[in-house]
Amino acid sequence: MEYIYISWKDFRPHELLFKNKSKRNYKLEIAKDFLSLDTETSTTSDKEKGWIYQWCLSYPHPEDGKRYLVYGRRPSELTEIFIRIHEANELSKQRRLICFVHNLSYDYTYFHKFLQEGFQTAGEILAVGPHRLITYQMDGIEFRDSLKIFQKSLAKVCKDLNTKHGKL
Fold first, then answer.
1. Are 60 and 4 in contact, with CB atoms under 8 Å apart?
2. How many other CB atoms are found less than 10 A from the CB of residue 83?
3. Quick check: helix, strand or coil at residue 100?
4. DSSP of 40-95, one letter per residue?
5. I want to staple 66 with a disulfide (CB 3.0 to 4.6 A). Which of 45, 61, 125, 153 is the partner?
6. Residue 34 three-state SS
7. How far is it, in rounded angstroms, from Cα 137 to Cα 98?
8. SS3 135
9. Is the pTM of this model over 0.90?
10. What are the pLDDT digits (tens) for 14-61?
């Protein structure tokens, strides 16, 4: 798979094609037409304050087999990217894009307030317990926890799939 690295400032999402699936419109070719998000975070030594210091979002490129890797440093930049994606794809509760996040419950604590402020809505959560999210839906962007789906760490997933680059 080829990647095109692009700063959040320069990224202009194209519209993705949707096909009808039950009552909602989802991307059918989930193997290539999904988003994935990874954040790097840190906390103070007493764990009282935490922050995102870097993020990367994978977005399908119009050419087959390629993906944009959009990167930035601030949660406000990430929110701006999701707003652009929302507008380019005219997302709604009936027209959704899926974004996979490994260990969503953890990353959610860092980015949800920024998304809520940017989209001016609280979103909807499906959880199996306190701080154990399965999905978080924010105005047509549905975040799904790949850890819950795979039931494996990223290191184990990389090893099982024999990927070129693994989890450090």
1. no
2. 15
3. strand
4. EEEE-TTSS-EEEEEEEEEEE-SSTTEEEEEEES-HHHHHHHHHHHHHHHT-BTTB
5. 61
6. coil
7. 9
8. strand
9. no
10. 888 665 555 555 544 444 568 999 999 998 999 888 898 999 999 988
